[in-house]
Amino acid sequence: MNKNSIAGFVLIGVILIAFSWYNAKIGKEQERLQFQKDSIAALEFKAAQKASDSVSLQIVGTNSDINATPAEPVAVTEKSSIYKDSLLNIASRAEEQKTVLENNDLKIEFTNIGAQPAQVQLKDYQTYDSLPLMLTKEKGSKFALRLFTNQDLYTSNFAFDLASRTDTTVVYRLYLDSLSFIEYTYTLPEDGFMLDLNVRLSGMNRHIPRNTTNLDVEWTLDMPRQEKGYDNEKNYSTVVYKFPNSKSVEDLGLRKDDATEEIRTKVNWFAFQQQFFSAIMVAKDNFNGGNLTYNVFPEGDPERNLMRCTAKMQLPYIDAPEVNIPLELYYGPNHFKTLKSYDMGFEKIVPLGGWIIGWINRYIIILVFDLLGNFIGNYGLIILILTILIKLVISPLTIKSYMSSAKMKVLKPEIDKINAKYPKTEDAMKKQQETMALYSKTGVSMFGGCLPMLLQFPILFAMFRFFPSSFELRQESFLWAEDLSAFDSILDLPFTIPLYGDHVSLFALLMAVSMYFYSRMNIDQMSAGPQMAGMKYMSLYFMPLFLMVLGNNFSSGLSYYYLLSNLITMGQTWVIRKYFVDEKKIYAKLQERAATPKKKSKFQERLDTAYKAQQQQLKNKK
C-alpha cells in the first residue's frame, strides 16, 4: 500500500469521526430545545387554566370541558429525566386527582394515575359484616396499556389529564407530544353494571413501530372477601374466559390455591369470578390471546383479600393515525338473569354444572325458584315448596323402587333356601343359576330398586350445585340461619376440628340425624349375610356421620334442603308401605307368575351354558 492510499484512509476516518461528533451535538441541542418547548407549552396551559373557571374533579353531576392539552408541569430537570419524552416525565410526577361517576347501581371512583377505576362500589349490596360492598378497593386494582415506542411504557405509571367529564362520561388523555396522545373514554349509563371504555390512540403511529400488530393490556385485581364462609367463597371463585362464537366457557378450575393458563387463540371476554360477584372485561374485537392467573390469599390475610387475579392479554393493533379499541367492564353480581340480560354468555360463569345437571338447573330449578319468588318472600318456605314439588315429580320412580324392594323382600325366604341348598364355594355358579331362574320366573329384576334411584341422582347433584351458587339466597335469613348461602352456626368453638371446622351447624346436624332414622326405617329391606352387615353399618352410622362433618361448612340452604328431602322421603316411605305395598298380594302375584311357563332369557341361557361347561371341566379333572 503506497503513501497516498494510507493518507486517503486516514482522511476518511477523520471526516467520519468529525461528522459523528457534529451529529451527536446537534441531536442533543434538538432534544434540549424540544424539552424547553414542551415545558413552555405546559406552563402556558397552566396559566390558561388559572385564568378560566375551573371545576373541582371531586364534584359529581356537573359538566366540565377542559382544554385537552398536556398535563401541568412539575420541576423536572434533564438530569432527573426518566423518560425520553419530556411530557411523560411531567406526567410521571404529577399529583393524583380523583373523579367519580355514579348511576343507580354503581359508584366508581377514578384516579388520573393510569386513568383507571380506583374503587368500585355496588350500591345495593353489603358485605356479610354490613359494610359497603367494594368490588375494587383503594390500591387494589392496576390497569395498564403497555406500549413499545422508543422505550417500554406502562400507562399506569403516568397521570392523565382530565380532558372532559359529564354526568355519564369521563375522558382522560396522556400526551407524548403535541400531536400524539392516548385517550380513555369511560361511559356509565344511568342503570346497570356495565362500564364502557374506548381506548383511542391518536397520532401514536409516529411512536409505535410499524410492524406492531398487538398491544398488551394488563389488569391485576385484588378481590376482597365479601361472604361469611372463607372456604365456601374460595371454592366457588376462579377465573373464567370465553372463546368467540362458543356456547360454553372455560375456567382455571375451582378449589385451587393458584392456577395459571396461557391462551394462544382469540378470547372474547374473561371474568375474575368470586362466589357471588365478578369483574369482567370484554374486547368487542376480541383479544388475540394472553395469560390468565389467580392466587388465593390465606384466610388470615390482614387486608381481608380473597384472591389476586391477573390478566395479561393482547389487543389487536393496526398502524394508522387514529386507532380505537372498544372495551367493556362489568362490575356486578353473579345473578343468573342479570348476567343473561347482557347477551354475551356471562351467565355461564355461574357454576350450575355441566350437561344434564346444568340443564336441570338452568331450565327447571331456576325457573321454578324465580316463579315462587314472585309470590313468596321467605326463601325458607320457597325451598320447602321446591322440595315438595321435586318429590312429587319423582314419586313414580320412588314408588317403583319401593315395589321392587318389596318383591325382593317377599322372595327372601326362597333365596335363603337356595343359599342353604348350595353352601359350597364350588356350587356358586349353580346357586346363581337357580337364583336368576327364580327372578326370571317371578318377573323380578335385581336392579329394579336401583335404577329408579339412579335416575334421581341428577336432581340431587343439581341441588348440590344450585344452592351454593344461588345469588337469591345470599344474606337471606331463615329460622336460626342468618344467611342461607353460608353455613349456620348455633355454637362457635374455641378451636378448629380438622375437616369439621370451628362451629356447629344445626342444619347439618339435623340432616345427619334424619339420614340415620331413614336408614333405620329401610334396614329391613336389606338382605342378610356378611357383606350386607358392612352395608348396614355404612348406611346407619358412617354416611350420617360423614355428611354431618362434610355438611358443617355447606351453605345452610343446601343442608336445609337435604333435611327436608329426608323427612319427606320418610313420609313417602310410610305412605307407600301402608297404602301401596301389600306383601301377601305381591307374593301371590309372584307365585302366579312363576307358575306360568316362560321362555328363558338370553342371560339365563348363557348362565346355563356356563354352568354346564364348569361341570364338564370338574368331571374332566376328576
Instruction: Kindly name the structural category.
Output: alpha+beta
The CATH architecture category of the largest domain equals Distorted Sandwich
Q: Evaluate the radius of gyration.
A: 36 Å
Task: Please outline the major beta sheet.
Answer: 10 strands, antiparallel
Shape: elongated
Which CATH class of the largest domain?
Mainly Beta
Low-pLDDT sequence parts: 37-80
Question: Any overview of this molecule?
Answer:
This protein is an alpha+beta fold. It folds into 2 domains: 30-351, Beta-galactosidase, Chain A, domain 5 (Distorted Sandwich); 356-478 and 555-595, no CATH class. 41% of the residues lie in helices and 25% in strands. The protein has 15 helices and 22 strands. The chain has helices at residues 3-51, 86-93, 230-235, 336-340, 355-373, 379-393, 395-410, 412-421, 428-442, 450-469, 506-521, 530-551, 556-579, 583-595, 602-621, and strands at 64-65, 98-102, 106-111, 116-126, 132-136, 141-148, 152-154, 161-165, 169-177, 180-187, 194-202, 214-224, 238-242, 250-251, 258-263, 267-273, 277-287, 290-296, 305-316, 322-333, 491-497, 501-504. Helix 5 crosses helix 10 (450-469), helix 9 (428-442) crosses helix 14 and helix 11 (506-521) runs antiparallel to helix 12. The model is unreliable at 37-80 (pLDDT under 50).
What are the key terms here?
six-stranded antiparallel sheet; ten-stranded antiparallel sheet; alpha+beta; 22 strands; about 625 residues; about 40% helix; about 25% strand; Beta-galactosidase, Chain A, domain 5; 2 domains
